[in-house]
Each structure stands twice: as structure tokens, then as C-alpha cells.
Amino acid sequence: MAKRGGFPGGMPGNMNNIMKQAQKMQKQMEEAQANLENMEYTAKAGGGAVEVTITGKKEIKSVKLSEEVVDPDDIEMLEDLIVAATNEAIRHIEETSAQQMSKITGGLGGLF
Fold it and tell me: What is the rounded CA–CA span in Å between residue 8 and residue 11?
């Protein structure tokens, strides 16, 4: 009579291989994430009048402004340019992160 449920003697060999691959992938993802966090991303707006540099942790590191963009009568334009440059730098981080994770997961999508 056959036993019901479970696998006698532990997991089958194929399941062990899958677990090892998943652990390896997890480690690679953690290393890639750490590398991305240590990078800096710079984006410009207004034809280079505003430049924002942020870290991979999405923390603003610096904001550079050209003299000609600093107009006390048009603060809103300067604010908009800073926001645009910051958002572009964040998009760059997200694109880089997605590309790196895709390389590791081999296109498995949301499985890992």
C-alpha cells in the first residue's frame, strides 16, 4: 500500500535545486540593490539650467542652479524645474534598478 502525502526522505532532488537557485537569485538581488544604492544619478531640466543629483536611496545629494534661472519674479518656474529634474533622476534610478533585476531574474517577473 502506498504512503499518503509528503515525500519520504525529504524533498525530491529537483526541489532542492529550485531552492538553491532561489537562494542564489536572492543573494544576487541583494548585492545588485546595494550597488544601486551606492550609485548617484544626475538629471537636468530647463536645458541644463537646473541639475539635481540623487543617490540610489533616492536622497537628494545636490541641486545646482544656473544664475540666469534664478529670477525672484518667477519662483514658480524655478520650483517646476527642480521638481522636473528630481523626478527625471528618480525615473533613471527606477529604470536602472528594473534592468538590473531583470538580468538577475531572467524575466521571471513578479515571481521573485
Answer: 8
pLDDT tens for residues 13-53? 688 888 888 888 888 888 888 888 889 999 999 999 999 99
Averaged pLDDT, 66-88: 93
Report the alpha-carbon distance of residue 9 to residue 57 in Å, rounded.
Answer: 45
Distance CA 58, CA 106 (A): 26
HEC string of 69-81 equals: HCCCCCHHHHHHH
- Predicted TM-score (pTM) of the model is 0.67
Reference 92, options 39, 17, 47; nearest CA is: 39
Query: What does DSSP assign to residue 1?
Result: -
Q: How confident is the model at residue 112 (pLDDT cuts 50, 70, 90)?
A: very low
Residue where the block lists cell 522636473:
84
DSSP string, 31-93: HHHHHHHH-EEEEEETTTTEEEEEETTS-EEEEEE-GGG--TT-HHHHHHHHHHHHHHHHHHH
